[in-house]
Write a sequence for this structure.
């Protein structure tokens, strides 16, 4: 269970034979392959080769991994583990979220907290509504799908509402972009992961008839988010107290690992938001432990450890995204995928522009051109794919929803991911890029 209560779709297993319905959604069919240990060695070898190959190019590393995964997956050279919800939630998501929260720029987060809260909270809900209504209308009137109701549109919109700007944040840092912009994009993604998961849970409950009260759904939303934050805060408080009693880098790093995965697991077990719990734990430990408690030796060691964890997890998960999709199987749904992609981008642009306009009279006034960067930098990733695969089997248009989600993720990663370097260089270095505050323009890297 993710957050809240709804019926879980049957899980994929390595030893489960997959039928024609699964082949129709663009997933690679099951073939018995080598052991898991051998597979991960091959995956890390591929990731290392890709990293070396793109190190001197402008192509984002994670985007290159997706492309390589698509190619290698279509050739059936290696049989990777399935990118399931259980795998993502138990191994990848807690570590990636904690590392980003642990290293987030606290000063800049304080400067941009209203913007982050608006985009990751009500902004996500508004984007889901806009995307869902636009998608359902377009599919009914342009794609000849009169049965694709606004309820199905909301499910699709919730699936693709979470952003995954890893490649974008890495690019911004490489370009020497303002810390304020980098922190805003990264922090919004951290919190909207949790918001989108909770929103999808509640929308599925509404669609299935388990809950029909808007007030009740809103109350559950607040409870799940606040409960996750409370658990993350409680666990991080205990870890802070423990680290003050020890002075051993290995023990202290182990305690941060316990905080990262323990907060996520405990929150999920109690039906709260594991993502929010891990985000809060990461932010608290990054401030109270990393900057105030750790010795210089421990700080350097912990930073290197979490930097490698993020690199390793990102390498595998982006390769698995490529392996999970068979592009030829998505060709039949290219028109609905295009409709969904356009709806997602337009809805995000409207939300980002609206938030920036609302906050313009405040101290968080941002350059107008940042709206385009924040919009186009809102890539979609693995979270949307695994949530789509976990949809209930009896959900109307389930196969189409999975196809559209997979297609939007691939289009986002390739189209937005490969063009964002051009947009970033043009918008951050052009005259007028710093119309908010001095110092908000492009800095010289290094």
């Amino acid at each position: 269970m993710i957050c809240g209560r709804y019926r879980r779709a049957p899980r994929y297993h390595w030893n489960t034979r997959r039928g024609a319905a699964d082949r129709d959604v663009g997933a690679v069919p099951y073939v018995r392959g080598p052991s898991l240990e051998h597979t991960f060695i091959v995956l890390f070898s591929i990731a290392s080769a890709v990293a070396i190959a793109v190190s001197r190019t402008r192509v984002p590393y994670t985007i290159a991994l997706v492309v390589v995964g698509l190619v290698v997956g279509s050739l059936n050279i290696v049989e990777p583990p399935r990118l399931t919800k259980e795998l993502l939630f138990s191994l990848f998501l807690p570590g990636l979220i904690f590392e980003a929260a642990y290293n987030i720029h606290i000063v800049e987060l304080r400067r941009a907290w209203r913007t982050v809260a608006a985009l990751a909270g009500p902004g996500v809900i508004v984007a889901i509504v806009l995307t869902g209504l636009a998608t359902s209308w377009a599919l009914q009137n342009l794609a000849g799908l009169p049965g694709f109701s606004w309820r199905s549109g909301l499910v699709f919109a919730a699936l693709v509402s979470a952003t995954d700007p890893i490649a974008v944040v890495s690019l911004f840092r490489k370009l020497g972009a303002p810390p304020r912009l980098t922190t805003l994009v990264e922090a919004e993604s951290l919190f909207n992961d949790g918001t989108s998961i909770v929103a999808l849970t509640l929308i599925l409950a509404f669609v299935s008839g388990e809950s029909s009260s808007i007030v009740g759904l809103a109350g559950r939303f607040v409870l799940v988010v606040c409960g996750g934050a409370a658990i993350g805060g409680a666990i991080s408080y205990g870890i802070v107290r423990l680290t003050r009693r020890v002075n051993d880098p290995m023990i202290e790093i182990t305690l941060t690992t316990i905080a990262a995965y323990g907060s996520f697991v405990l929150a999920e077990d109690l039906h709260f938001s594991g993502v929010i719990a891990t985000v809060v734990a990461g932010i608290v430990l990054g401030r109270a432990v990393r900057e105030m408690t750790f010795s210089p030796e421990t700080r350097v060691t912990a930073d290197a450890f979490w930097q490698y964890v993020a690199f390793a997890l990102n390498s595998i998960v982006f390769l698995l995204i490529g392996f999970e999709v068979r592009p030829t199987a998505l060709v039949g749904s290219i028109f609905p995928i295009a409709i969904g992609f356009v709806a997602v981008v337009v809805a995000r642009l409207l939300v980002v522009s609206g938030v920036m306009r609302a906050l313009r009279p405040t101290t968080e006034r941002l350059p107008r051109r940042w709206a385009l960067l924040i919009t186009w930098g809102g890539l979609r990733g693995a979270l949307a794919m695994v949530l789509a695969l976990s949809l209930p089997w009896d959900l109307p248009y389930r196969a189409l929803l999975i196809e559209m989600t997979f297609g939007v993720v691939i289009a986002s990663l390739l189209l937005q991911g490969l063009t964002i370097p051009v947009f970033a260089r043009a918008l951050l270095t052009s005259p007028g890029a710093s119309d908010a505050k001095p110092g908000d323009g492009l800095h010289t890297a290094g």
Q: What stands out?
A: Residues 1-24, 442-446 have pLDDT under 50 and may be disordered. The two ends are 44 Å apart (CA to CA). DSSP finds 19 helices and no strands in the chain. Residues 398-429 form the longest helix (32 residues).
